[in-house]
Amino acid sequence: MTRPIPKQGILQSEEVIGEELFLYDDRTGAVHTLNGGAAMVWLLCDGDRDVEEISHEISSASNLPLEQVRLQVFETVAQFDALGLLEG
To answer: 47-83, pLDDT tens digit by residue?
Structure first.
């Protein structure tokens, strides 16, 4: 999970709707609703960035302390992985 990337078959809503992003797992039919923070993390999980780079980007954009953001990003990515949304 060094560079998180969505599994094939995970479709997302075209835009954030009311601070939520919706994911649809084409394989299972499950729908996942992400709040604004989780949506930001999801959108940065592109396989090019690792958790540290994602944390830095969010910390810079939100003016939140890096340590706080890093913990939240790590936990969020771990949840995505537990839900089967990420490759590997």
So the answer is: 999 999 999 999 999 999 999 999 999 999 999 999 9
Is 10-82 in CATH node 1.10.10?
A: yes
The bridge status of strand 31-34 relative to strand 10-12 is unpaired
Cα torsion 31, 7, 38, 3 to 10°: value is: 170
In angstroms, the CA 7 to CA 21 distance is 17
Side chain identity, residue 77: V
For residue 6, give the DSSP letter: B
- Tell me the domain boundaries of the chain: 10-82
Confidence band (pLDDT; 50, 70, 90) for 45? very high
> Which amino acid is present at 76?
T
Contact between 23 and 11 under an 8 Å Cβ cutoff? The reply is yes
Using alpha carbons, list the distances in angstroms from residue 39 to 18, 31, 36: 12, 14, 5
